[in-house]
Amino acid sequence: MFNKAIVFVIAILASAIVFAAEQAEPTVAKASYIVQADSYVVAKEAVIRVGGEVTHELNIINAVGASLSVVQLGELSKDSRLKIQKDRSAGVAAATLLSYSTLSRTVDGGDGPSSYVSTIVGAADLHRKGLTGEGVTVAVVDTGYYQTNDLAKKRDGQHRVLAQYDAISSQTFSAVDEFDEGEYDFKDNLNSSIGSDANGHGSHVTSIIANSERDQNGNYLGVAPGVNIVSVKAFDGNGNGTYLDVIRGLDWILTNANKYDIRVANLSFSAEPQSHYWDDPINQAVMRLWSEGIVIVASAGNRGPDAMSIGVPGNVPYVITVGSMNDNGTPLHSADDTLSSFSSAGPTVEGFVKPEVVAPGNSLIGLMNNGSHKITMDHPEFMFSHGDSDEYFAMSGTSQSAAVVTGVVAMLLQGNAALTPDQVKCKLMSGASPAVNDASELAYSVFQQGAGLVNAYAAMASQETDCANGGMDVQADLAGKLHYGGRANVDENGNYYLMDLDGYLWTNNSLGTEGYLWTNGYLWTNGYLWTNAYLWTNGDVGTNGYLWTNGYLWTNGYLWTNGYLWTNGYLWVNYDKDSAGINVWVQPE
Fold first, then answer.
1. CATH no. for residue 292?
2. pLDDT confidence bin for 385, thresholds 50/70/90
3. What is the DSSP letter of 7?
4. Rounded Cα gap, residues 160 and 226, in angstroms
5. Is residue 305, in this structure, part of any structural domain at all?
6. Separation CA 134–CA 82 (nearest Å)
7. So which residues are the catalytic ones?
């Protein structure tokens, strides 16, 4: 008995010692990073070698997401093969609230919602010719998707949502089996909770692109009601996401592009630039998609009207970046149209003109759910119902403008599936109409309106195909062999101008309230030469002697010198200084 008691006591003491040791062991703090190399395999093996946890596989940029301690990070930083960046936040480009007077006209007497967006951008003319985006698949990277018939099905009752991917949980619901001779075999269950939308932003954007319901005037409420949709959820119920999840969503698009015939990706989100465009991981993924034949449409952002306020990924020079115009509540009368005051403006830090085009971004209506979407619950006064179940929400933003242009792009690709992304961009710009004043001069700088208001019919009719992204090689850019700068510069008085081109001076004054006409008769000096690029070096740009250095000081403080150079896996000093989230609500116009 005595010996048994001793053994029992010893066992208790031993357990206590082990428990105490476990309790005393400090918790090792870890953080999320993007670890990049010449190949995905090298990055993954390096993380495993130091004992880190691989959280995301990002083949699209030859990288992995990793959870690392300070010690593990220090070990990886010694590896000259690696480029390491701290994960940061990104957010959907948040909407703008409307006034009651603006909302009331969208209801149009209570007989149902009316939308003049398709009329304003010439899409209605293409609808009458049978072009609705049929056969083109659009990937929407956002907060998810609201499962309602007018989004889930086309006008003829055919299913349109081919797949839903949740990049946060890395789960996929495919509504179809493999593509077989032009036909999709849909599964019966279209009510998967994967990729559901708790915020509402993604549903609103998707509705503007694809809603197949007609208004009381017979116009489609969606710009391209015949498209197929792939919903990629990368943002949570608050509209926030991480670089890792966004890139994982873009990687999924690349992997599944052939299966679902994805030709267009709508990116209505933004993060504040913290590097040159070519060093940003999201931008690298976006450039990869562009190089693989997928047209990227990105929102400019809602941080205007100041210059140099374009966000990531809209600052990628290759893609189609979209700003917002305001019809001032008179959609069929264009003389009082203005640029939306919240619409972000260029140039980019590298000197590229942005946005490429503008589209309606005020007072747009989209399908949402009053009981399950955060935006509608926070602002129920902007919600209204139509019919037995359809519920619409009215809001504004460059997210909505980007969705309009995405629909236009889908119709261009239906009309000519052989178009490359560069050719689509050229046709959009050549068909656009800039805003001019009474003297037939540009009412807004190219840094505010780009080529002007997009017009689907004119873009379809345009014979121009070689007027965008001249002098640039996206493959060489991705490989790090060449990088590019645009023609924008700033003089000693803080005025922005385009090198080698006359008549493009912008003093960066506030937007006026006077309305302007959009004209298709404006004669651009030297065509669209301002879309071409110079070769970016640490000294002169091109052969014209314009000095672009890593320490070039823009007038509003964009001095990038110490802390933004990569050397042997060194981290950006200020990379996570400003986290990007859902943009603040801007004042109604």
1. 3.40.50.200
2. low
3. H
4. 8
5. yes
6. 44
7. 142, 201, 399
